[in-house]
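Researcher: Go.
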Amino acid sequence: MHVRLRNPDREVTVDGPLTVADLLDHLDVLPHTVLVLHDGELVTGDRELPEDAEVEIRPVISGGANAAPRCADCSGPAVLEEPRHRAAWCAAHLPDHVERQIRKAIDHAPGMAQGERMFSYADRLLVTVSGGKDSLALWDALLAMGYRIDGLYVGLGIGGYSARSQQACEQFAADRDARLHVVDLAEEYGYAIPGGSAATGRATCGVCGLSKRYAFNKVAVDHGYDVVLTGHNLDDEAAILLGNVLRWQDQFLARQHPVLPASGANQVRKVKPLYRLSERETAAYCVVRGIDYVVEECPLVAGNTGHELKAALDTLEAASPGIKAQFLFGFLDRHADRFAEYASDGEAPALNDCDACGMPTTGSRCAFCRQRELILQSLPLAGAAMAGTADSVYA
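Model: Structure:
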């Protein structure tokens, strides 16, 4: 169906038929903030709109375009306005909005069977935290929602940045009497990320990503957790999707989903409950909740194209609010069948136990153990090459 949204004007195409309520839910528009017209006539939430419907969604905000935004829940002065939601929230009700979006992600993740959820209150959850806004906001919100959830911080050995990140996570856990696991790569596996990258000649983010994924899964398996949660948000997922589409990375597109089920022994389900929320929303949540998060970015991300992809999407979002959500949600609603054949080149590979660590792998030794072996063999040479630079770069 063809949908015209007003003030600001934009037009979108949505697959139908849908009820008015489902259409507004799909577009993340609050029903009490708009009127919906079909063929020029007002329609209510239970009206089913046909596939070829011409629909107008008209905001009902008084006071003119320059009026101060009011909270969608209480009509009080707002502290955050989100054009894509066509709504704003005060400091007291912003956490409710964030929790609603997380609840929607948990209960209605695309591609899941009717009644199936990302996780339940019976599951033991492990959230991976970096000290940044997204992961700490997720941990805080799920604690407030009553879930059994512990944290995991992986120390990467990036000088002062890692020290400040670990401190933020430990302080958060202490303030809430929550359990935090800490894994230090150098102590546990014999290398830190800067040295590991130099030793392998691989991009820093590649070495870091593989190391963290391994640690996440191993801690979850060793301590009996059912689900691992990460703080990937709407901006992260839309940028990843854009990069995969531009390069037509079919296998990556097949696996881009907010729920990745465990595919064998010694694996746990991995989920992304923040995929419906922007970075701006999670940062604002942290501010109003008094969460002291690390604002600085990792100093080793130079050359990572993710920032450029986010900047490109931000430009589009400024001209057409909601375009990032439409891009990501539209893909997630449609991709399951279209990319399923690329998930594993047609057949799921057989998984074996790694002969070094026992974690699942398609060969005799897992990618992490191969990487670690290469790093430990090369570290003396890499350390000499890096001498004199670490203090200035990683302070």
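Model: The chain has 14 helices and 17 strands.
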